Structure formats: C-alpha cells, structure tokens
Amino acid sequence: MNPAVATTTPPRPRGRLTAFTNAWASQIGITVAFLALWLAFVVLAPSTFLSDRIYLAFAQTVPYIAIVALFLTMVVIAGDIDLSFPSEMALGMVGFVFTWQATGSVELGILAALGVGALAGLFNGLIVTYIGIPALVATIGSWYLFRGLTLVLVNGKSYALVTASTAPSYDLLVGKLGGVVPMEFVWLLVLAVVAWLLLNRHRLGQNAYVTGDNGLAAGLMGIPMRRTRILLFVLTGVAAALAGLMNSFQIVNFYPTMGDGFQLPTLAAVFVGGTSVFGGRGTIYGTFLGAFMIGAIQAGIVAVGLTDYYTNFIYGAVILAAVAVHALLRRRFE
Amino acid sequence: MPPPGGEKRLELRHISKSFGGVHVLHDVSLDLGASEVVGLLGDNGAGKSTLIKIITGVHRPDSGEIFFGGKRVDGLTVQKARELGVETVYQERALADQLPLWRNIFMGRAVAGRLGFLKVGDMRRMTAQLMSESMGFTSAVLTPDTVVKGLSGGERQGLAIVRALHFQADIIILDEPTMGLSLKETEKLLRFVEGIRTAGKSAIFIDHNIFHVYSVADRIIVLDRGRVAGQFPTSRYSLEELLDIMREVAAEGTFTEQERYRVADRPPTAPTAAGEEQE
Question: If exposure means fewest CB atoms within 10 Å of the residue's CB, which of A23, A68, A197, A312 is most exposed?
C-alpha cells in the first residue's frame, strides 16, 4: 500500500548552495572561527606559530580536554550535561594507584582506572535517569562526591609515579610515536574516529540525537532513552579516567585535586564547537576544533607577548565570539 | 482464555487507568476488526489520548487485558507494540525537528548491522524512495538530509504518516491527523485513511471533528469522562443523529436512546448499502 499522502511542495526560494550551507552551517562556522583565531596568532606571533614546536606541544596538552569533550558532546546532544568529569579523572587515578601498588602491574592499574571511571559514569547515569535529578544539578553533586571520595581514600596525599613510568604501557599512553608525535594525540585521533562513528553511524548516536531533540517523540517511538543516557555517562566517565591517566603519567605524579583546571576549558570546547546546550545538535568535528581553539589560547597569549592577565579576557572573547557565530548562522540559514 | 471473536485484530477488555488518583479510564472495552476503521470521538479529557497510549505501549493499564489477534499480551511496551504491527501517527509531535528526514523516518527502528552500526546508505535510499513515491515530495531541494524544521505542516504530516506506513503496520493509529492541515491536505488524508481499509489493514482515527471521522469510519466510539458512552456504526446512524447524541453525551455523560444502543452493540456489519437499513 503506497497511497500518495498529503503534501504538495510549495516552491521555495532555496537553491542547492543554500541547502548545502544549511546542512553544514555549524561546521563551516567553527572552521572559519578556527582559521580566524589561528591566523590571528600567526600574524601576531609568527616565530612561534610558524614553527612545529608549538604544535607538538598542543598535540600533547589539548587531548586532556579534547578526549573528555568528545564524549561530553554526546551527553549534551542527548540533553544532559556532566560536570563531574574532573573528579572522575582523579577518582580513576585512585583506582590506578591502589591497584598498581597492590599488584605491581601498571596494566592492571590502567584497567582499574578505566573501570572506576565507568562506575562513576554509571552512578551519574543512574541518579539522572532513575531518580530523575536534572543532570546539571546531579553532576554538581557527584563532582563534590567523587572529589571528596578521592581525598578521603588517599588521605589527601600525592603519589609519585616514577617507578611506574618504566612500564611499556606507560609509553603507550604518554610516549612519543616515532620519537616525535605525542601518544596523547594519537589516542585523541583514534577516539575522535570512534566517537564520530558512535554518534553518526551507530544506534547509540541516533538515539542520543532523538532523545535530545524531542524526548517526548523518543518516548512515543520507543527509543530506549534511559539506556542511551546512562551509556553516554559511562563513556564520559571512561574518557575522563583515560584523560586522568594521561595527565598524571605525563607529570609522573598523581595529586588528589587533579582535573579541576580542565573543567571549564572542556565545557568551553564543547560549546565553542557548536553543540547546543538544549540538546539534539552537535558534532564531533566541531568539538575537536573547539578543543584546539581553547587549548591554544593560553600559549598563544604568551607567544603574542601579552601578560598572563589577559588570558581570561581572551578566553571569554573567543568563547562568546564562537558561540555568537553559531547563533547567527543558525538564524540566517534555518 | 481466548476472547470471543478471535479474528479481532485488537481487543481491549475492562481497561482502567488512573494518574495520581484521577480515574482517566474506567472499565473501557473495545475491539477493532480486520479492515475496519474505528473513529474515536470525545471531548478534551475524555481519555482518548490515554487510551491510545495504552494501545501503543506508552502507558500500562492499572487493570484490564489487551489482546492482539486473539492473543493476550502482557507488559506491552512501545517496542513490543510496534513489533505487533501497531504504528501511530502522532502528527508532528513525534518528529525531531533538528534531525534530517531519514533519521526521522527510521526513528526507533534504525536499520543496523549486528554491532548496531547503522546502514545509513540503505536508510537514505529508502527515504528518497518514500519521498518521491509516497510523500509526493518532488522539490529538488528536499533531500533525505534536509532537516525537518524547514518542512511545511502538510509535509510534516505526510512524513509522520509515511513513517507509520512504511513498516507494514496492521493497525494504524491516527491521533488528530487533520489538525493544522489545509482543506486540500485534509481531503488527501481522508482518502488515505480509506486506503488503509482497502489494503486490509485497520485504523483507529481520533479527531475532534465528527465530520472528518464520520466520512471515513465504519464505526464511531464515543468516549466520555473515561467511559465508553456508546458505539455507533456509521451504516446505521446518520450524521445528524450522531450530532444529537454527541450533544446529549456532552451534556449528561450518557444518552437515552437505549434501543439504538443495543442495535449498535452487535458486531458491526460490513458497510453495505447502509441507507436501506435505516427506517
């Protein structure tokens, strides 16, 4: 049965070019913003931004925020948010330190850290979906909770990781590929591909988009919303634990307040990348570029010759400019 | 215990449902035969949408039984209902605005491989085919990747209907499908509902507008304050009579034409030369 139903299509003043810009407005916006910021840095500090040293440095530092931001993007697309990831970074490291000290195995420690991250994410997912606390509020609570748990468990102590740093798996996370490219960047690329596939080519992503776009519709059409949202919190927890491992391994030290410096930059990367705070919209590509924009600002400011006092001001300007570009493009093309 | 008349496609028996102590449905029984279009009428708050949501598995009844094709189904969920061949046209309410057409068509039913990876190419292709063959979308600007936000009211409705039809539904539920449609689009929709019956499928058609429902339904069920106030084969009742009854029900919650009611309560006959049976 295929009766033609309803719908005559009125002629519209739209051509192929506009249809293209429509679909890609967000990506074009972030790309232009990215290039504008980069050009500004190249013009103002050519000696720094035309050499490869700065890029190799970014390749090591940006992944700490970018890896979490990739999965946080999916959480936000599904209509939630997770503010607790900085504490998940540290809590995962508690899992590492305890397991490593008990067994002497760095590999087991890494697995334990990722497992703790998954459990922390599961906890977030459960209190958000089953108890029904809005994610913004719930994850403020769990941010304190995980941080407090970390401090209590390690008694406020820091741990030197020097003896762990000889393990081969240590180099797998924070070594240099071919002696040049930081492994953090390699992992970021791998995970960006994984995240892109999950979001765009997997049921999980389809369900995340629908849940965030129209939760009512998702319910009526039988989307497993709860499972989807919980799984996204779990993935974010695992990503946070991985970022925590990398950051601690890189500085060969674990201190129980680690991670909090990453909170706002990571969130900023997600929103600068064009993800809508209302859910249903966002891209991995945008977040990827957003993370590098945010990650480049601090070094860029120093290279340009400004004092560090400008940092926050320029962060704010870049974030607002990028988000404004997204808002304007949306209004113009939709 | 199999229900009497096992050839019924859908049967509800003694369904009750309350939300927070408010009885929304009280002892509601109804059935739906093969190739039958049943119109569901009732004021706001009569319980129409709750009844629909019970049939589609969104809500669970507090008590009562649901039979599909004569088989009792417990713990109905949305997924289960869709597997049993129930598809619902919730007009544009159940579309995701910011997502492309193909993601909307396959909402909740994505075509995917064993690991859950989507067959995006297949879904785009099928969407393009549905757009040209079933939705009458001929404009070159509309592609499977167009986001729903840019569609007109009629286009959205067409999308919602085609989505329900594409999946070989046996029971199609149309929840206020004419709302916001132009006159021409409404006509097309009513013709389409007739097509459902011709194709041997069944439909439940909910609307405020008795004129729309009367023109396509085999039988009209009137709900009032959570109860079935009466069932009326359109072959036995003229539109004028039904309007009178509706007014009475709205005023008093019941109607007094007991004689007629008994006649109507018999299994519905095929809509033959209906006029002759009426005096």
Answer: A312
